[in-house]
Amino acid sequence: MLTKRGVADSVNAPRMKILIVGSGGREHALTWKLRESQLMTEIYCAPGNAGITQEAECLQVDLSRPSEILDLAAQLGVDLTVVGPEAPLVAGVVDEFERAGLTIIGPNKAAARLEGSKIFAKQFMQRHRIPTARFAVAENFDEAVKAVAFLGLPAVIKADGLAAGKGVVVARSQEEAEKTLDQFMRQKTLGAAGERLVIEECLSGEEMSFILLTDGRGSFPLPPTQDHKALLDGDQGPNTGGMGAYSDDAILGDSLRGDILRRVVAPTLGGMAAEGISYRGFLYCGLMLTEAGPRVLEYNVRLGDPEAQPIMMRLRSDLVELLLALGRTLGAMDAHWSPNPAVCVVLASKGYPGQPETGQVVTGCEAAEAVGGVKVFHANTRMENHQLLTSGGRVLGVTAVAEQLGAAIQRAYAAVGKIHFEGMQYRKDIGAKGLKHLSPGRKSERPRHRGGHSASPKL
Ligand code: AMP
Q1: I need a surface site. Which of 87, 152, 170, 246 has the fewest CB within 10 A?
Q2: How far, CA to CA in Å, does 321 sit from each of 2, 40, 203, 221, 330?
Q3: From atom 4 of ligand 1, which residue's Cα is the shortest distance away?
């Protein structure tokens, strides 16, 4: 158990035992931020990773079993549980906690279908006129081939269910499309997740992650971020879980922000409410900013990873207070954000996103953190015989904050230069797209993120 000195001892301070569920860079960032809270007295993470053990006591749990997570929280007597990844949410962990009367942050099973089923999400958007790509649902191979012919190439092929970042393929040729459909639907490479598909038109534009904290009535936008999904520089190569992200208010001007709130956020929250579904927690709208306006590519029912890392670096308010305001006083909360941009560069293992090599010795994390304004968030790491080892595809998220985006990028890469493990791969252009938002003409009118209000229009 890691406690915050002073808080537990003072007579009137509320005692807040906190459990973070998950094991990636996002959960490390959440744990790091929650640990700073004045309300925190004990902090746990399940299952966590080698970096998180520096900030919280890590305990084993099977993330696919909501009842196991509930048992752990009950045994520990935690007051607040925060769920990082989608799988426990889609499996209904929030419903289990609510039945047991325990406080947990995240949407319930019905609401989590926005991420758990792409077909549900697309049909929901259609019902509520939320702008998105044209699409068709395919129940078998022949229907899928017809849908590709109808929508044209390139075609975006999406598995209906959760597929750990492997369920979306942008097929540029007929051959690639049919190969993907064969793999998903006949060879069942994704299991049940790929038995039904969404086929959709390919959109072009810049992508943006617009994430909010909401209790279904009020909503609280977090600063805008951009993820880098492709493995290689210049958005080349296969899709990954995300090779880096940056957060800078300059991504989002006032009129675009208003457009997103009006055309995407309001009908999404209104649509959920109209269908009798209460949505509480983080809601991630993955957008394509097309010439015709923003289009929703996907919903996630949680914070993004690696978007959470720069977002948490910029948050100045007490995260526990913000989370406890859900369902109570969210609209009245005032969050403070650093105006400074933040950048997270993901260091991945050789072979990622296919078969990552693991068990490599990692060195240099302390030297990296000695670079000012840098925090190294761990993802797939473990300790063995006092050595830090890689244990999966995405290993570390080196995150830096600075007054200007260019300086934050420089800091992040200076810190990356201190870290070594065999086969380490990373993109060299994280944040570069953001620099073009900062042309001299735009710099003076650079927007400031306003996070303190229930910013969605009346529903
Ligand atoms: P998703 O999980 O649906 O966000 O898809 C993963 C990635 O695939 C996105 O971040 C985009 O880079 C790409 N993608 C998804 N849908 C489309 C689309 N309709 N047009 C172009 N690219 C897309």
Answers
A1: 152
A2: 19, 10, 39, 16, 10
A3: 298
At residue 177, the pLDDT reads 97
Residue with CA closest to ligand 1 atom 1? 298
Region 29-50: mean pLDDT is: 97
Torsion of the alpha carbons at 146, 151, 156 and 160, rounded to the nearest 10: -60
Q: Is the CB of 290 under 6 A from ligand 1?
A: no
Mean pLDDT of 238-245: 93
| Total Cβ atoms within 10 A of residue 49 | 25
Tell me how far apart the alpha carbons of residues 100 and 74 are, in angstroms, rounded to a whole number. 9
Residue 168 in contact with ligand 1 by CB distance below 6 A:
yes
Report helix angle 118-127 to 109-116, nearest 10: 100
Q: Is the CB of 133 under 6 A from ligand 1?
A: yes
Decide: 16 in ligand 1 pocket, CB within 6 A: no
Q: pLDDT digits over 366-420, tens only?
A: 999 999 999 999 999 999 999 999 999 999 999 999 999 999 999 999 999 999 9
Q: Is 321 in the pocket of ligand 1 (CB under 6 A)?
A: no
> Would you tell me how many other CB atoms lie within 10 Å of the CB of residue 384?
11
Instruction: Indicate the pTM of the whole model.
Output: 0.93
Give the integer Cα–Cα distance in Å for 450 and 209.
Answer: 16
Please give the distance, rounded to the nearest whole angstrom, from the Cα atom of residue 297 to the centre of ligand 1: 6
Which numbered atom of ligand 1 lies nearest the CA of 204?
21
Start-to-end Cα distance in the chain = 43
The reported pLDDT for the residue numbered 129 is 98
Tell me, using a 6 A CB cutoff, whether residue 36 lines ligand 1.
no
218 confidence band (pLDDT: 50, 70, 90): confident
Residue 64 CB neighbours (<10 A): 12
User: What tokens appear for 55 in the block?
Assistant: 């900030």
Q: How far apart are CA 4 and CA 18, in angstroms?
A: 12
**Rounded to the nearest 5°, which phi and psi values hold at 101?**
75, 25
